[in-house]
Predict the 3D structure of the following.
Amino acid sequence: MLYSKLFGKTSKTSKQYDTKNAALLEQAGFVRQLMAGVYTYLPLGLRVLNKIAAIVRQGMNEVDGQEILMPILHPADIWKQSGGWDNVDVLFKLKSRADKDYALGQSEEEVVTPLIKDLVTSYKDLPIKPYQIHWKYRDELRAKSGIMRGREFLMKDMYGWFKDQNQFDVFYEQIKGKYLDIYKKVGLTAKVTEASGGAFSKKISYEFMVLTDAGEDNILYCEDCDYCVNQEIAKDKGSSCPKCKNKSLKPAKASEVGNIFDLGNKYQESFNLSFLDQDGKKQLGVMGCYGLGISRLMGVIVEKYNDEKGIIWPEIVAPYQFHLLHIGKDENVIAKANALYKQLLDRNIEIMYDDRDISAGEKLADSDLIGIPTRILISAKTLLQDSVEIKKRDEEKSSLIKISDFLKTI
Ligand SMILES: [Zn+2]
């Protein structure tokens, strides 16, 4: 990508931001706010979002999820049938010209349960785990925290049906491990907490929390073991860890980056769904719902990986791996930089090339703000040694490397 041609460059604004991810992502040219809680993803931002989505998709396929794509626009009937129309306060409701009621999906149990009823009849077909990666809508009274708490957000939602509690529990352990892997891959450490089951489920739900001061959840966690609980339901505040008994629990702010609900048979009952067991008897089975916020994850990554100069993207989700720039107006320098850019493109290297005729200071500041993992700098000085200067965004030191060697190592 030639930076001179990029749609959505860095910008300086006097706007007040409530979180670092909102400020950095907008100033660095990744997103643009349309209104509170609703963002446009510009080319750089969309590349990051797609990379996170690809990691999540791979993880879900590895636990035998099957990707589908369900509608965002729902008829009101299905929400009335589940009771959600009157009970889900964040449900966006709208009316058509013909005065019919509709809802925008904030979760899709109401769509997927009738789908399962149409397509799956036997216990033999369980477990079955369709999922999608799609936009969700929540009528938040106050949307804030940048892309971490949106009215519109990208989410992976999987729904699972199981013969019995045991089959559900086996899969819970499997997907819990997969979720923790996914967070680790993108550079985050998540804690699994128990929380209340939300509007519909009297059962416990599991939340995946990443410690961050920008988070909106208050948790208590143990520094010695993996015990962690949402303060909402904590009975043991101030006392020692109920699991290892070693330490008293520590309070922290965290952001929920995933959740798992054991929905029991709530939706089977609402939609009259049952499966035939081996004796031909109708059974309700157990249903689970598995959410993972993709746009939120992007916000949390920025909250964790930044410094006073800008974003520091972990390689796996970075929009590009290399940020090439030349310094000075020397024609030879520009020609060498152009040639290197072409050579790297030919090798399918993900590279952004700042080919603008602006000051070195501006280019370096922009490169730090955008946060691509490795900077390649060419100047008259580096060319005296046929070299480029390589600097990792998360390191202070830089090193000179011969261009020919660099091309060999890449
Ligand atoms: Zn403990």
